[in-house]
Amino acid sequence: MQADLVIVGAGMVGSTLALALERSGLDICVVDAGTLAVAPLNPDAPFEPRVSALSAASQRILGRVGAWPGILGRRACRYTDMHVWDGSGTGQIHFSAAAVHAEALGHIVENRVVQDALVDALRAGDAVELLGGAPLQALTRDGDGWQLELADGRAIRSELVVAADGAHSAVRRLAGCQTREWDYLHQAIVTSVRCAEPHARTAWQRFTDDGPLAFLPLQRGEDLHWCSIVWSCTEAEAKRLMTLDDATFRAALGRAFEYRLGEILEVDPRLCIPLRQRHAKRYVQPGLALVGDAAHTIHPLAGQGVNLGLLDAATLAEVLLAGLARGERVGDLRLLSRFERRRMPHNLAMMAAMEGFERLFQADPPALRWLRNSGLKGVEALPELKALFVRQALGLSGDLPELARA
Ligand SMILES: Cc1cc2nc3c(=O)[nH]c(=O)nc-3n(C[C@H](O)[C@H](O)[C@H](O)COP(=O)(O)OP(=O)(O)OC[C@H]3O[C@@H](n4cnc5c(N)ncnc54)[C@H](O)[C@@H]3O)c2cc1C
Fold first, then answer.
1. Mapping DSSP to helix (H, G, I), strand (E, B) and coil, where does residue 29 land?
2. pLDDT above 80 for 355
3. What's 301's DSSP letter?
């Protein structure tokens, strides 16, 4: 087989990139290790454990590539407020969409829902070749392009390969791209829980002595009592929490969350995910680009991972379309470097901020404890500064690609 562009990974980022380039005139092939089967619509189905807090910028990107109606038609929870507080002090902060005259701070959506809506949109368009159940096995240079070998025996030659195959990217490994990695020695327990009190369309985050604990609002029909939780803690504590029976886990979770939403009434099966922050030293080589988690995995603390990945996808599409309009080759390193120059500083800044936050909230010395408490209180007392944070989180500022602009 022959293609102009092969996107390895049809997750949220790879599928978005494919849709953004659907009308580029390029021969595009998307390969994924998974089957790409779309789950039947069932509004009462149990929640998937992996969810994402999608910003307004991500909503705009997903809307412009035609996937947002498919997301809303499945299941998504709009949230308008966010409460963050320090469990070992008195510092707290409240962000509200109303403060910047916005309708929402974002939406909490199951990753599966986003991916299914994207795959539906790709199948409806019929312009992109989708190969499911086809993990990439080998990648070799072939002149000014690449030869890809899939596990099912198929081979594809392509001028440009985009790695959208997630945190453990096979493309990144096979192409010899180097990364910097930080192990937090922390794990995240994720699951969905039903609380006694409704969540009030609010995302809640408490910084505990062990790490941050987030309750993200979910919606099933009119029921606003379900939350997705991300509980970051040390490896030993995660191991202990994973072995508790449901009733003991619910009690421990309720206590750790200071019963802000009352008792925890139900809990779904738990998943434990190791937390690593990873950043590729370069996002591009001749004929190759890394996007999304293949380029950077960030602490889930701020819920920014896929938001950064969707901005990567929208920016790479914009750079490639501009290059094509000027008659440039899509594998040209100078063209691909424009993508790297626009995205790397932004991603690094976000990762550095998360790293600083993580350290500040893990730190126990009284001076740092005082700093984080007075910091939270200080920002809380400055409405202008808070509004600035909210606009940043909504994706209303910075160097945004066209697809993400209001
Ligand atoms: C606990 C936790 C909570 C999070 N919460 C948030 C949040 O609230 N907001 C947010 O923005 N982000 C969040 N994130 C991050 C977010 O989940 C990721 O950034 C996002 O899933 C990355 O998307 P992606 O498309 O780059 O990669 P992935 O979602 O990992 O998709 C990769 C795709 O590549 C395919 N693939 C893998 N290997 C191969 C191969 N060899 N050949 C072919 N295909 C392959 C896979 O099947 C998959 O479809 C969280 C992460 C964690 C761990």
1. strand
2. no
3. G
Render pLDDT for 200-246 as a digit per residue (tens, 0 to 9): 999 999 987 778 899 999 999 999 999 999 999 999 999 999 999 99
Q: Are 67 and 124 in contact (CB under 8 A)?
A: no
- How many CA within 13 A on the CB side of residue 78? 11
The partner residues of 404 in beta bridges, in order of sequence, read: none
Ligand 1 centroid to Cα of residue 13, in Å, is: 8
Report pLDDT for 312: 98
DSSP 253-280: HHHHTTTTT--EEEEPPPEEEEEEEEEE
Strand partners for 258: none
Q: Give me 277's structure tokens.
A: 């922050």
Report residue 375: phi and psi, to 5°: -65, -50
Separation CA 188–CA 207 (nearest Å):
14
Predicted pLDDT of residue 269: 97
C-beta pairs of 334-340 under 8 Å, 24+ apart in sequence? 336/284, 336/285, 336/286, 336/288, 336/289, 337/284, 339/283, 339/284, 339/289, 339/312, 339/315, 340/282, 340/283, 340/284, 340/289
pTM: 0.93
Q: Residue ranges of the domains in the chain?
A: 2-37+47-181+276-404
Q: Residue 398: CA atoms inside 13 Å, Cβ hemisphere, count?
A: 23
67, HSE (Cβ side, Cα atoms, 13 Å): 31
**Ligand 1 contacts CB of residue 292 (under 6 A):** yes
**CB of residue 217 inside a 6 A radius of ligand 1:** no
Closest CA to 46 of 189, 254, 188, 193: 193
Q: What is the pLDDT of residues 286-330, one digit of tens each?
A: 999 999 999 999 887 767 889 999 999 999 999 999 999 999 999
- Domain 2-37+47-181+276-404 belongs to what topology? FAD/NAD(P)-binding domain (3.50.50)
The residue whose CA has the least distance to atom 35 of ligand 1 is 9
CA of 313 to the centre of ligand 1 (A): 13
Residue-level pLDDT at 251: 98
Kindly report the CA angle at 111 between 229 and 166, in degrees rounded to 5? 105
Given a contact cutoff of 8 angstroms between Cβ atoms, the answer to whether 31 and 134 are in contact is: yes
For residue 298, what pLDDT is reported?
Answer: 87
Of 99 and 6, more confident: 6
Examine the pLDDT at 7 and tell me if it is beyond 80: yes
Pocket lining: 30 vs ligand 1, CB cutoff 6 Å: no
